[in-house]
Amino acid sequence: MSPISKREYLNITKVRYHKASLTKKTRILDEFTATYSCHRKHAIRLLNTPLVIISKPYKRRGKPPTYRNLIIKKVLEKIWLGVNLPCSKRLKAAIPLWIDSYQQNFETLSDTILNLLLKISASTIDRILRPLRVKYTRRGRSTTKPGTLLRKQIPIKTDQWNEFRPGFLEADTVAHCGTSVSGSFVNTLDLVDIATGWTEQRATWGKAEHEVVQQIHDIELSLPFSILGFDSDNGSEFLNHHLLRYFRHRKFPIQFTRSRPYHKNDNAHIEQKNWTHVRQFLGYERFDNPKIVPLLNALYKSEWRFYHNFFCPSTKLISKQRLGSKTIKRYDTPKTPFQRILESSYIDPSVKKNLSELFQTLDPFKLHQSIRLKIKAIFSIL
């Protein structure tokens, strides 16, 4: 018999016992001791107590909840949306970078709230934000058409994940073609540095070889380090004589490699950035107006690069071990590309100083708002 059943049976028997005669009380005691499994004297004491139902309030086990606070939830939601819906581990790393800007733009937080936000764990963030999570399942089209002309001259490289020197880039193009690849439309040239995660984007009209080379040159001038290697897929916008001459006909030639045909995972770094840095903001709409190209490039060269490189943490693979049929991967603590550049011994101190001074002038919430307004202006001319 469960404790609840015992309590109900005791209350019912009490009513009968108090109203019964002496003879009936004896029979009720015999029945109660057999059913309740207790000594007769203990049964008499239980049945003679007054019929009072006392319901004790439920007491939660353990220490009282620390993060059940609407202010903490509101701050986490604002920063989570500002960093563009990252996972909890990346959001935890972003909180110290965004918290000062939050106080400047929204409200001043108490020292207690600040300490809780800086000490919060990734699992607690997951628990608080679980009702707000949204799954994205939209997928687009692939517009990579293999270029066969220079395959034998450009070697294949598949072990890019363990690069530790800044300057080794992965490249890809993102087609803003909507549901059809016919005609002309805007493409985004997307580049990421494997060691630091530093990203740069540029818009091009179509995939003309000379225009892609021109935008790569513009990106090279804006990078805080020199290009040492360039790895791309087998698209014809990359495998051509224009780009091959650009990388090799210079005083210090750049290592130019490619992935295996039809193996997207060879360029996993840039494939991931295609989603987080382009698709999550611009979606899968068709940009078939040439006027969009200068507007996108104006955005890519200013707020876009500052927002992603200074305020959006990411993880980096540091080890990979194969055990039977399983591959065990280890990742480092989430950091922004700017933080990885500061930690790198290969970057000139003057570059680090300039980037640090620039970082002090940036406000992530204002950058995010400006990006949204410019994207809205771009969509208004579709």
State which percent range the strand residues make up: 5-15%
Quaternary structure state of the chains depicted: single chain
DSSP E strands, number: 7
- Strands side by side in the biggest sheet: 3-2-1-4-5
What is the level 1 CATH name of the largest domain?
A: Alpha Beta
* Mean pLDDT rating: 87
Number of helices: 14
- What summary fits the major beta sheet? 5 strands, mixed
Write down the CATH topology of the largest domain. Answer: Nucleotidyltransferase, domain 5
The percent range for helix content is 40-55%
Structural class: alpha/beta
Radius of gyration: 32 Å
Along the chain, the helix and strand elements come as HHHHHHHEEEHEHEHHEEHHH
Estimate the global geometry from the Cα principal axes.
Answer: elongated
Question: Unreliable segments (pLDDT under 50, ≥5 consecutive)?
Answer: 136-142, 144-149
Short description:
The chain is an alpha/beta fold and 382 residues long. It has 14 helices and seven strands. Strands 3-2-1-4-5 form a five-stranded mixed β-sheet, sandwiched between helices. The protein has a two-stranded antiparallel sheet with strand order 6-7.
Describe the structure.
The chain has 382 residues and is of the alpha/beta class. The chain has 3 domains: 3-48; 70-132; 160-379, Ribonuclease H-like superfamily/Ribonuclease H (Nucleotidyltransferase, domain 5, 2-Layer Sandwich), CATH 3.30.420.10. Helix content is 47%, strand content 12%. The protein is built from 14 helices and 7 strands. It has helices spanning 3-19, 22-36, 40-48, 70-82, 88-105, 111-119, 122-129, 209-222, 241-248, 268-282, 292-311, 337-343, 349-360, 364-379; strands at residues 168-175, 186-193, 199-205, 229-232, 255-258, 317-323, 326-331. The strands form 2 sheets. A 5-stranded mixed sheet has the order 3-2-1-4-5, sandwiched between helices. The longest helix has 20 residues, at 292-311. The radius of gyration is 32 Å and the shape is elongated. The relative contact order is 0.11. Residues 136-142 and 144-149 have low confidence and may be disordered.
